[in-house]
Sequence to fold (375 residues):
Amino acid sequence: MMRFGIDTLIHTDFAALSGQRVGLFTNLCAVDRRLMTTYDIFRTSDAVNLAAIFSPEHGLAGMVADGVKVDSGVDPLTGLPLYSLYGETYRPTADMLAEIDVMVCDIQDIGVRYYTFLWTITHIIEACGEHGVPVIVLDRPNPLGGDIVRGGGLDASLASLVGRYDIPIQHGLTMGEAVTLINALYNPNPAEITVIRCDGWQRAQDWTQIGRPFVPPSPAMPHISTARHYPGSCLIEGTTLSEGRGTSLPFEVVGAPNVDSTATADALNALNLAGVRFRPYRFQPTASKHAGAACGGVQVHITDAAQFDALGAWLAVLAVLRPHYDWKEAHFDRLIGDTETRAMIDAGEPVQAITGRWENFLDDFAHKRRDYLLY
Fold:
């Protein structure tokens, strides 16, 4: 039976937390094999002295929309401080850390550089390293698997909460592996980190092979299919096209009011990209870009997950739809990690020319990450 980090911690009767005041960074989407939240496990266990709670983007409940700042306050069920690390600060302050002896991080990542949860933990380990607070990461599988690594690196001048350090877009690491790598290579005050590993997960396994329900970790990540598209479809955020927010298919559809659905689907299907088909699709978002407007576009269908390249497919979407959108230049560059990709799309360069620039970086990263692989 596969165990995640939280399952192993329970199995050991919380031995790693004995006698310590515990800070917990999590949201209510982090669950054990019974689908009980780590938050509920910690607050109801006599073996855990929970002292403070820390939450990421979308808040503790995981329900706040993307980009909306969340205030700190008091957790109503426990009466404990509930510190938002997506509000006034991304980094725990000395006063927040003074209340705890150990910080436990348990949250489900997606395995894509744009997703903010990893970067919030990097702020945590930097603060904990500075103030001498050890960190325990309760590990979870990478939903996209651990073998496939795709995408370019990140120019340091473009660092933000959608990418702070130079790792690929689809990095193939678990949270425990990524945090350990970043702590060693980038943290100016490395923290003492313990990873409570998954038991039974193999690198080649994606979420469909894990045998557990997929619990949405954020409002616009409802399905494992969403996560599969996300390494490419999140780039649509950096344009005036709708990425499907405000519909039942966020990050799986794309369009705008001026787009011809049939012509777009025909042009994309003519590329004969492996593992994917494009279907004409019309939709009316209820929120976010083009809210209330009828949009033309496509739904992107994965026909063979083993062959599907999300970055290649969605860069092709951007190339075909280029006459129909404006750039959100700063945001797109932060996502893709450079300023050249946007210029190459504008110049009509083939997608292969864009992705081909990443080969040396990916080879270097494959060697770099070997020392930090736990599975």
User: Anything to note?
Assistant: The chain has twelve helices and ten strands.
